[in-house]
Amino acid sequence: MGCSSSLPDRSTGRLGGLNNSESGGVADAKNLRVKLVLLGDSGVGKSCIVLRFVRGQFDPTSKVTIGASFLSQTIALQDSTTIKFEIWDTAGQERYAALAPLYYRGAAVAVIVYDITSPETFNKAQYWVKELQKHGSPDIVMALVGWH
Q1: Which domains does the chain have, with CATH numbers?
Q2: What are the residue boundaries of the Roc domain, all occurrences included (predicted)?
Q3: What is the rounded (10 degree) CA torsion for 74, 1, 108, 35?
Q4: The whole model's pTM is what?
Q5: Each residue of 53-84: pLDDT tens digit?
Q6: How many angstroms separate the Cα of 104 from the Cα of each of 13, 73, 86, 93?
């Protein structure tokens, strides 16, 4: 597992379908609040991805997430819109799987992470896609991320 040393360009881009409060996004003029959840097996890199996005850093001594952790990140787009991401980084251990619906309920975005060297984690990613299709918001945006 590793993280890129480059930072994302946060001055451009558009997010569609995230203004609806029913799907985890709340609009106030040009200020948006978006609930985002990360799902995937333990050790696939979920925390690494979110720490890179929020703090711009990689912690090679990152510990396993217990339960879930919450972080937020606000970005500004070129049109003066601000988007505050409320990010739930869920634990990947099987014993916490029953808690996942508490975190993805009402989420506008789900990032499903798997390890590209592990077919088992890809199978679990497919499970999360099906779970979100059945129990997530109807217009949830899903991203599948292969990590190593």
Answers
A1: 21-147 (3.40.50.300)
A2: 27-148
A3: -40
A4: 0.74
A5: 888 887 666 666 665 678 889 999 999 999 99
A6: 24, 18, 12, 16
